[in-house]
Amino acid sequence: MSAPTAAAPSNPSAQRPPSSHRPPSRSIHSLADLGLLDKEHPERGASVRALTLAALGVVFGDIGTSPLYTLRECVHTAEHGGPATQAGILGLLSLMFWSLTMVVTVKYLTFIMRANNHGEGGILALLALVPEKLRAPQGQKVGWVAVLVLIGAALLYGDGIITPSISVLSAVEGLETAAPGLKRAVVPITCAILIGLFYIQRRGTADVGRFFGPIMVVWFATLFGLGAYHIVEYPAVLQALSPHYAVSFFLHHGWHGFVTLGAVVLCVTGGEALYADMGHFGTRPIRLAWWLFAMPALVVNYFGQGALVLSHPEALENPFFSQLPTGPLTYALVALSTMASIIASQALISGAYSLTHQAVQLGYFPRVTVKHTSHETEGQIYIPQINWGLMVACLIVVLQFQKSSALAAAYGIAVTGTMGITSIVYYVVVRRNWGWSRWKALPLVVLFLCFDIPFFAANLLKLFEGGYVPIIFGAAVFSVMLTWKIGRSLLAEYIVKRSPPMDEFLAGLHNRLVARIPGTAIFMASNSGRVPPILFHHAQRIRVLHDTVILLTVVTEHVPVSDEDRRLEVQDLGEGFYRVVARCGFMEAPNVPEILHEAAAQCGVPVDFSHMTYYVGRETFLASGSGKMGRWQEMLFAFLSRNAQPATRYFGIPHDHVVELGTQIDL
């Protein structure tokens, strides 16, 4: 029997293969690692032109493929399947234009992107800016802000299922326009493309990433050219730039106008990616890419599709592909659309990896296998469990819904839910962190919510038409994240209660008649102020310790990158004991052997690398009804703990130098 140990602190770090020749890992985003990007001021590290091109390929893939299906779904919803009227089309175009303007340009690019955590954006980075007392778990309770953020993060996983499915499916459906006989081949081709897309993820995106930007330039240029051509033929469509038509649309359609918002929101899906990806490129390149390329192309193409539908009502069946005459050009547009949709899907898949990586390091997700797919670019990672899970989910969704028009009903709830949560958490940050007055912060957030809440409510009406898909998936992910956070918090409390203070332990060391043998022992410790239970048990029962004992604590801070000046802290405790505290940011991937080499080289810790033993513990959770956690929640936590990646592999600890002891715990 043995005592429990904190083999994996509640905020663990990602796996890195052990190596004594590399400096400590600092897993940042690709452009930063290549020397192209200054994290605080990215536009200073490389030409704005290069960063803008790269941002166009990575950031705007999702929102850039929305013209494939958005106007078609809006018209079908607004007109009940009947003929499109000029007033209806102009009203829809006005709603789409002002949604793009207010949600993307004003909300995200002007305000939300100012809330960055040392250059990093995204909903988990935003959580890190919230005061500790509002997000820190206390026993079985997690702060309400943290719960909101976990819901938003879980919904993003649902978005990661819907986006690849609807993007690729809608692009391949263009074959029906060119050759109606190929209708039966659409779903099999879509599934084949999705399988191939997920299969190549393990190879990484280093080689194909440089092509994303140029392809998206061609894509947006095509959108602009096609739209401009049809606007010239029907210039009256430009009247929709006036908000008057959006207001008139609601006055005329009433309740059904509100329902139509569930389709209008499709034009702003991907807006959250602008915020999440700001750490890759910086705010200025993203804003330039939006103003100079993405928004003009999107607005012109939407208006061009509207002009086409008004002048040729038969084009309503598929207005995007009807912009070109049927023939070879249609096949070329299908090919370009498929490439663009793959890029959009790639961005969401990579985003799921990054989100999981951050959630693991912040203690909201079990340890998973994190593989770095590039020797030069540490930010490019691959997580097999997430990859194959997303692939299976995408295939099920495509086979279930068959058509992008049916799948569109499932799209929107996840995105709008996350957008609304981002607005609420942003209010907390500007009030508590920036010191804004209520009268300064409240009107701004109310303005945001005036778009977020109606969009979300309209999408909730599609819950039973397919909207349940991201809800179910998000609920499962949320349960995992919340259970893991609470379980780790209770486990930490359990360990603290059974961990004596270090001074008492050292004072009684001689009384226990503990023998000392040559070599170095490393004990992982989640609490840097107390003795790990496994060390206390080892000394009390076995009565043998190495000459040098290192208590290693890995602390994941709520910043993307730790400060070099306080990255490593070493304390000589006497009696051959040393406490080493290694700090890392939630975007970094520390490796235990590398940390020890740094501690020996820079801080003089006497590490005997030829005679080194790592002591780790493995807990078995009983899941009885007597613990604080409850039977079912502890059963889930026990299942997650059993299937999490072992701490030894996760921290890059050589398996042939490990002694592992287990214990039974009832939380």
UniProtKB/TrEMBL annotation:
Q: Can you state which reaction this protein catalyses?
A: K(+)(in) + H(+)(in) = K(+)(out) + H(+)(out)
- Stretches with biased composition (Low complexity): 1-18
Where would I find the K+ potassium transporter C-terminal domain in this sequence? 518-667
Cellular location(s): Cell membrane; Membrane
Q: Which residues cross the membrane?
A: 50-69, 89-109, 142-162, 182-200, 212-232, 252-276, 288-309, 329-349, 381-402, 408-429, 441-461, 467-487
Q: Which Pfam families match?
A: K_trans, K_trans_C
Main subcellular localisation: membrane
Q: Which UniProt keywords apply?
A: Cell membrane, Ion transport, Membrane, Potassium, Potassium transport, Symport, Transmembrane, Transmembrane helix, Transport
* The keyword Glycosyltransferase belongs to this UniProt entry's keyword annotation: no
Q: How does it sit in the membrane?
A: Multi-pass membrane protein
The record's region (Disordered) falls at: 1-27
Against InterPro entries, the record matches this protein to: K+_transporter, K_trans_C, K_trans_N, Kup
Q: Which domain of life is it from?
A: Bacteria
Q: Which residues form the K+ potassium transporter integral membrane domain?
A: 51-506
Task of the protein? Transport of potassium into the cell. Likely operates as a K(+):H(+) symporter.
What family is this?
Belongs to the HAK/KUP transporter (TC 2.A.72) family.
Q: What is this protein called?
A: Probable potassium transport system protein Kup
Q: Which organism is it from?
A: Pendulispora brunnea
